[in-house]
Amino acid sequence: MNKSIIYSILFGAILFFAACDPIENREEMTGHITEDQLDVSATLVVVDGIQSNKIILENHSPVLSNWYVITDPKKGTRNLLSIKAQDEVLLTSVGENTIIFEGRNGDGSTITKTILVTVDDIVFKIPGLELFIGNDTSKTWVWDAFTDKGTPWGIGGAINDKSPSWWGPGYDNFTESDATMTFALDGGLVFTKTLGDGTKEVGSFKYELTYRVKNKDDGKESPWVVGKLIFDKNTKATVPHPQSANYPTNAAKPDAYEFYILALDEDQIILATLPDNILSDEVGPGGEANFWMFRPEGFELAPNDEQIAALTGGSSKVWSWATGAVFGNGGANGSGPAWWTMDAADVNDQKPGEGAGATMTFNIDGTMLLTKNTGETIDQTYKVNMGKFIADYSIGTLTVSDHVLAGYSPNDEAGGKPWVQDYNILVCNDNSLVLQYIWSGEDGTGWFWVFAPVQ
Questions:
Q1: Phi and psi (nearest 5°) for 389?
Q2: Nearest-CA neighbor of 21 among 80, 70, 79, 65?
Q3: Is residue 27's pLDDT more than 70?
Q4: CB atoms within 10 A of CB 162
Q5: Assign residue 122 a region: left if phi > 0, alpha if psi is -120 to 50, beta otherwise?
Q6: Adjacent-strand bridge partners of 269
Q7: What contacts 410, CB < 8 A, 6 or more positions away?
Q8: pLDDT 10s digits, 168-189
Q9: Alpha-carbon gap, residue 299 to 368, rounded angstroms
Q10: What is the DSSP string of 245-274?
Q11: What is the pLDDT of residues 395-426, one digit of tens each?
């Protein structure tokens, strides 16, 4: 383990706070003390003679507390560790760490003290790191070869998409399409990109899983982004094919080093940037975004034979609306429409021709025919993906080239998105098909469709 390199530090927002008291007493202080009167300390916890990455912060002076760690000595960048007088937090950098205490007197003046500590090893687990490195000390990721968009890199819509649904060059049709990336904990947070010829580019990474963006349309926090991933630009080690497709064609296309995290779990990483490799705290729906999609090395999709057999009956099978509440919204973790609901007859008022009497025929060859009750038909294709589970309750996804019966989200329709093409599968058996779509405009809302086979 190379301890001669000081690796990058996670954003303070993801550091683990483990103080006994959950809330700091921030009562207004009075009076004034000078820097040399400060009684503060920052002490590393020693485990078996090793100075660990857990640090005990103590302020015994009559001033309000703000603790910081320097994350970029060259720029003087610092992240907040704590606002408590006494606290325990985790550092994430092996080597010398600079701790800054900033106290505020009752008269509003501030006093500071710098404390240097040296971390020998990452002894205590760093929250969220297992999503990158797995249950071991490292994990290798490859391009997603299973995306139903036919490409793991390209352009799609900001806020509305989590894949390159607008354009992509296809598999193997871009530089570094055979490269891999490895996240590791090895004396620090280490990132390695391995090119197809075996060449390695080694650097460091940091992340912030509490980072979010706001939707420009309504000013609300959007679930589109679940975090931020940043690579050390000085090392030039970043994701495979880091160029943004939506950089101006008349400009040089520099590598991207900062990314939105759109998805991060044990079997998928999806990253994105806005045009010109920009990350903005406010994003407007409908604008462009560039996407990078990865899977763990050795990943395989779960079998979907059972679901295909249920959809097609082994060759061709006709589905229509079930009885009762068949369309509407409800809690995203629900099993069907519960808040605003309608039966098949009412659906026809919402989407003429797609209510009672309309059908969908799924064929074993991957084709699908939507037949409206007016006789109009729409030829489509479909794909079942059982390799992706949504929030532990969806068994997979169904993607269609156009839409299922009344396959729209009223919330998104007003924003110019007429049809939903990607659905979570809640139930798929011989007698029932229940689909769901999680509305991207507000966390916790789902739209549901309930179908039954035509006898």
A1: -105, 140
A2: 65
A3: no
A4: 19
A5: beta
A6: 264, 294
A7: 447
A8: 998 888 999 999 999 998 767 8
A9: 28
A10: TTS-TTS--PPP-EEEEEEEETTEEEEEEB
A11: 888 989 999 999 998 877 766 778 888 898 99
**Rounded Cα–Cα distance for residues 67 and 373 (Å):** 66
Beta bridge partners, 153, equal 292
> Containing H/E element for 66?
strand 64-72
Which tens digits make up the pLDDT trace of 150-159? 789 999 999 9
Instruction: Please give the full DSSP string across 106-125, using - where no structure is assigned.
Output: TTS-EEEEEEEEEE----SP
Evaluate the CA torsion angle 201, 202, 203, 207 in order and state its sign.
positive
Q: Which residues contact 455 (CB under 8 A, 6 or more apart)?
A: none
What domains can be seen in the chain, in order of their start residue? 12-119 (2.60.40.10), 130-296 (no CATH), 305-453 (2.40.128)
189 close to 7: Cβ distance less than 8 angstroms: yes
AA identity, residue 17: F
Q: Which two tokens stand for residue 48?
A: 């078996």
State the average pLDDT over residues 126-142: 91
Classified as helix, coil or strand, 425 is strand
